[in-house]
Amino acid sequence: MFHVNRCITNIFLTLLYNVSNEKLFLKDIMLVLIMGTVIVKNVKSCNEKLDENFKLNKKQCTDLEKNEKEKRDVKEEENEEEEEEEEEEEEEEEAVEEEEEEKEETIEEEEEEEEEEEEEEEEEEEEEEEEEEAVEEEEEEEEEEEEAVEEEEEEEEEEEEET
User: Fold this and answer.
1) pTM exceeding the 0.70 threshold for the entire prediction
2) Rounded to 5 degrees, what angle do the CA atoms 90, 95, 97 make?
């Protein structure tokens, strides 16, 4: 289209040059006017097409920019979500570790309590054994006393019999 307009413009300028030199007739002048109007129409249509193309290009550019911005926003959101997920996972891991530590502590405390209870039971058993031994000793002493009393009674009886 541009080349056609250029050719027509060259012819038009040649005709104008000839008109200015007064070498043309009326039909040539009419031809110059017609060609001028054709050139003007072509230029207008070219300008309109250029404007349309410019608007389309501008719209495409804005659409591309919007798409790129949306893609960036989506990527940022995904990155933020990933970071949040990582933080949540870390918090969960920490919570699990804390629970395990608490379980270990409770197990240790229970073991300590069991050991203390066993020690107390052993002490109680030792005390009971000591008490039993003391009771046995008392019984033995009582038996010895009874035997001594019996011996004394026997001796008294023997003395009485002798007398």
Assistant:
1) no
2) 95
